[in-house]
Amino acid sequence: MKGTIKINNKYGAKVGNLQVFTYEGVVKAYRIFCELFNRDMTMEASSVMSDAANDLHKLGFTWDEIEQIEISTL
User: Fold this and answer.
1) Distance from C-alpha of 2 to C-alpha of 51, rounded to nearest angstrom
2) How far apart are CA 16 and CA 22, in angstroms?
3) What per-residue confidence (pLDDT) applies to 37?
4) Which helix (H) or strand (E) holds 62?
5) Measured at the alpha carbon of residue 14, what is the angle toward residues 23 and 18, in degrees to the nearest 5?
6) 53-66, pLDDT tens digit by residue?
7) pTM for this model (two decimals)
8) pLDDT, tens digit (0-9, with 9 covering 90-100), for 1-48
9) Which of 29, 31, 53, 57 could form a disulfide with 18 if both were Cys (CB 3.0 to 4.6 A apart)?
10) What distances in angstroms separate CA 10 from CA 13, 15, 20, 51, 54, one per listed residue?
11) DSSP characters for 8-53?
12) Element (DSSP H or E) covering residue 60
């Protein structure tokens, strides 16, 4: 996926608590949450990462694509 995110005539979307405007930004934001989880390994980090993954899925990413992003941060 490439390009600017536009939903209901509004630009941007939330990934976790981060506002992003491009699909590249979505991936970068999700990588941040994955890296925090990998570093801390806490229930809180897991919950935040799970919520962010659901945000990606709502934006059209498949679960396989989301998993590949997660693997790329290891």
Assistant:
1) 22
2) 15
3) 95
4) none
5) 95
6) 999 999 999 999 99
7) 0.86
8) 567 787 777 788 899 999 999 999 999 999 999 999 999 999 999 999
9) 29
10) 9, 15, 12, 22, 20
11) TTEE-EEETTEEESBHHHHHHHHHHHHHHHHHH--HHHHHHHHHHH
12) none
